Amino acid sequence: MEKNSPSVNFPKIVIVGGGFGGIQLAKKLRDQEVQILMLDRHNYHTFQPLLYQVATGGLEADSIAFPLRKIFKGQKNFLFRNAEVTSINPERKIVTTNIGDYSYDYLVLATGSDSNYFGSRELEHFTMPMKTIPEALNLRSMILQNLEEALIETDPDVKKGLLNFVVVGGGPTGVELSGSLSELKRHVLKKDYPELDISEINIYLIEGSPVLLGPMSPQSQRHSKEFLIEMGVNVITGVTVTSYDGQVIKLSNNTEIITKNVLWSAGVKGEVPEGVPKDKIVRGGRIKVDQFNRIEGYKDIFAIGDVASMQTEEYPNGHPGVAPAAVQQGKHLAKNFIKVLNNEPPEPFKYFDKGSMATIGRNRAVVDLGKIRFQGVFAWFVWMFVHLMSLVGFRNKLVVLVNWIWSYFSLDRGTRLIIRRFNRESMREDTSGK
Amino acid sequence: MEKNSPSVNFPKIVIVGGGFGGIQLAKKLRDQEVQILMLDRHNYHTFQPLLYQVATGGLEADSIAFPLRKIFKGQKNFLFRNAEVTSINPERKIVTTNIGDYSYDYLVLATGSDSNYFGSRELEHFTMPMKTIPEALNLRSMILQNLEEALIETDPDVKKGLLNFVVVGGGPTGVELSGSLSELKRHVLKKDYPELDISEINIYLIEGSPVLLGPMSPQSQRHSKEFLIEMGVNVITGVTVTSYDGQVIKLSNNTEIITKNVLWSAGVKGEVPEGVPKDKIVRGGRIKVDQFNRIEGYKDIFAIGDVASMQTEEYPNGHPGVAPAAVQQGKHLAKNFIKVLNNEPPEPFKYFDKGSMATIGRNRAVVDLGKIRFQGVFAWFVWMFVHLMSLVGFRNKLVVLVNWIWSYFSLDRGTRLIIRRFNRESMREDTSGK
C-alpha cells in the first residue's frame, strides 16, 4: 500500500532518520527538483550531546528536542511521516514502516546508533541506556526514585545498592554523566536529602581501556581523569564488566559493587533496518559505504552519520560517531545529489575534523583543537558556547542558556522531578496520570 | 510498620498533599515546635492553572512543576515522603501508604480534587482528563498523534474524527483549553501540516449551563464567549453530553459529533482517601469541615483546599475550588495550629475573594476584581503577571517568561513533541525508549 505519494515526477528521496545527518541533507536539497520524504519514529530531532543533562535534572527534555516539521516549515519539496521503519526492500525499492510502505528512487539511511550490549541480554535488561529522550527521562526517574527508596530502607546492604551509581564506559557520555552525577550529589542532593549522609552516595566510572576519552589527546585524557577524581568519582580504568544481575556488578579485576544503578554508555552499534544485506554490516554494526556514502553494490541506497562506516586510510574503522561527521556527510551527500541531477560526477567525501571536547563539570572541560589543547574554565566556556550554538531553534538556545546561567549562580538543578515513574520489570511507567 | 519516626516529642502533623494548601501550611509552621511529615504521590508541586499550556505545546512540563523537597530546603521540622496514601485510620491515628504506615497527632488532608465523570465509566475511559502533569502530557501526545494519523487516513469519516476536538466543560479550564487549541490550529498547525486543509480542524466547547465561566460576572461570561467565537471555536451552551463511545459524542440536543478527541473538564470531585466516614462527604465529593477546617466529629483531622467543603452563608456549597482558597486555608490553619500550641483559641476561617480571571487567547482575557471588570489586552497582561508571580521558583518564572515572550513575537509554540506515545487502550505508552 502506497500512501500519499505526490504525483510530480521529480526523483523521490526517502530519508530515514531526522538526526544531524538527515536534517542537513534535507535542508540542503531545499530548492532542488526532488521530492523528499523523511521518516522518523519521533516527531522531533534530538540533540543527543545534552541528553546527560536531562538525565541528571539540569535541563528539561523539551529544550533539547525540536519538532522536525518545524525545521522544514515552508520547504515545498519536503514531506514528513512519523513512522518507524521496519525493513527495506532494495529489489522492489520499497521501505516498510508501521504505517505502510513507501517507494523510493533514492534511499538514505540516517538512522544513527543505539546502545551496544555486545550480545549480553542481562546487561541490556538490567542497565540503563541513554540514547533517546525517553531513555534519559527514565534514567532521571530511576535515580530520584532510588534516592527516595534509600530514605526508607532499613537493610544496610539494600540501601547501599540504592546509593551506589556505576557508569560503564569512559567515552564522552560516561565522563559527562559521572561528572554531572557528582555535581548533583554535592550541590543538590546534600540540600534535598538532609536525612541522608551524602558520603554514602558513591559514583563509579568503569572503563575497559586504560584511559578515558579514548580518541582525545593524552593531555585531555589525563585532565579529565584528574577532574573526575577531584570531584569524588571513583575512576576505574582497564577493567571490564563481567556480569550484572540487577543487584551486584562484577568486574574483570574481581571487584564486586552492590548497586541498583548501572548506567550503560560502553558502546554503540549502528541502527540497521532489516533488509540491508548482512555482508555489508561491518565493525560496530555499521553499514559499509564507499566514499560517496553509497552502500556497496547499490546505486540508489546511501548511509550517512553514525550508521555508516566509510573506511579510509586515516579512519580504517570509519569516521567517529559524532555530530560533525554526520552533519558533514549529510551536507556532502546533498551536494552530490545536486551534481548527479546536473549530470556532473559526484565528489568523494572528506571529513574535516573540527576537534573534540568533553565537559566534566562546572568550570571543568577538556578541548582538543588539532594541536591546540586546553582545559579548565576557558575550555568549559568554549564547550558551552559550541553546544548552545549547535542546538536547533532560538527558543531552545534561550531556554538552555537561562537554565545554565541560573544553575551557574545557584549551583542548583531545575528539573529533578519524577514525572513518569520508572519500573524496570515492565520497562514501563505508571501513566495513569496519578 | 512505622518508619523513620523522629524521636522528639513535638506533636506530629501529617500533611497529605503538596498542592497550594499543603505547602502554605507547612511553610508557615517553619519555626514551630512541631514535626511535619508531608506525603505526596509526586515529588513535585504542580501549578495546575497552566496545565493547559503544557497540553497544547506552549510550555514544558518541568517549568510548571517544582520539587517539593526544594521548597522546604533547610526547614528542620519538615520531612517529605514520596508516597501514595491509600487509607486513613482515625481510631488508630494512622495513615496507610504504599510504602508503609505513618502515625500522626494531627492529620491534614490537602489532597485536592480529581476529574469527576459523574459515575460514567464510559466517559472516564474514553475522554482525556487534565488534572496532573502526566495527564497533560498524554493529552499533548494524543493531539499530535491524531494529527499525524489524519495525514495518512484515507477514510473521510475516520479523518474527520481525528480532526474534531471537543472540549467538555465551560469553566476556566475548558475555556482556556479550547482557546489555546484554536491558536495552535491557526498559528502552528497551519505551518506544520501544509498538506492538511486547516479548515477541516474543528474545535467545539460544550457547556451544560447556559453560560461559560459560571462563577464570573455576566460581562466576563459574555466576553469570553465572544472571544472564543471570534477565534473560530464552536461554543455550544445549555447542552450536556449523553454518551461517548470513543468514536461519536452524543449531546442532549441530539447533535452527534464524530471525534477521537474529547477533553474532559466538566467537573471535579474531592480526592478523599478511604477511611473518611462516608457521612462527612458532601456535594462534589468534598469533605465537610467546620470553620476551623476540622472534619466534623474529629479534633485531630483537618481538610483544606479543594477537598474541603466549608459551608458558610455566603458559600453554601463550600468555597470555590481555586488556588487562592487553598492558599488562604493553608495559611489560616497554620495560624490556628500556632494558637493552639500557645493555648489560645483558634479563629474561624474567612475567605477573601481576590477576584477571578481567565485567558482565552493572545490579547484576550477577562478579569473580575469585585465590582471592577475588564477584558482584552490589559486583562491578558494582568492574567499573565498574576500567573507568573504565582509560579513557585525563580527558574520556573524565568523559563515561563522566556517562553511567553518568544511565543508572543513568533506566534509559535515551543514544545509540540510526542515524547511518550499515548495509547488509549492500555492507558500506557511505549516507553521502551525507542
What is the mean pLDDT of chain A?
Answer: 93
Shape, per Cα inertia axes of chain A: globular
Assembly category: homodimer
Number of domains of chain A: 2
Greatest contact between two chains: A-B, 66 and 66 residues
Reported for the largest beta sheet of chain A, the result is: 5 strands, parallel
**Number of DSSP E strands of chain A:** 25
Low-confidence residue ranges of chain A: 1-6, 427-434
- The CATH class of the largest domain in chain A is identified as Alpha Beta
State the share of residues found in helices of chain A, binned by percent.
25-40%
CATH H level of the largest domain in chain A: which superfamily? FAD/NAD(P)-binding domain
Instruction: Report the sheet-strand fraction of chain A.
Output: 15-25%
What distance lies between the first and last C-alpha atoms of chain A, to the nearest angstrom? 40 Å
Gyration radius of chain A (Cα, Å) is: 22 Å
Number of helices of chain A: 11
Structural class of chain A, by secondary structure, is alpha/beta
Strand order of the largest sheet of chain A: 5-2-1-9-21
CATH topology-level fold name of the largest domain in chain A: FAD/NAD(P)-binding domain
**Gross CATH architecture of the largest domain in chain A:** 3-Layer(bba) Sandwich
SSE layout and pairing:
The structure is a homodimer of 434-residue chains.
Chain A: E1 12-16, H1 20-28, E2 35-40, E3 44-46, H2 51-55, E4 65-67, H3 68-71, E5 78-82, E6 85-89, E7 94-97, E8 100-103, E9 106-109, E10 113-115, H4 121-126, H5 133-152, H6 156-163, E11 164-168, H7 172-192, E12 202-207, H8 218-230, E13 234-237, E14 241-244, E15 248-251, E16 256-258, E17 261-264, E18 268-270, E19 281-282, E20 286-289, E21 301-303, E22 308-310, H9 323-341, E23 356-361, E24 364-369, E25 372-375, H10 377-390, H11 394-410
Parallel strand pairs in A: 1-2, 1-9, 2-5, 9-21, 11-12, 11-17, 12-13, 20-22
Antiparallel strand pairs in A: 3-4, 6-7, 7-8, 10-18, 14-15, 15-16, 19-20, 23-24, 24-25
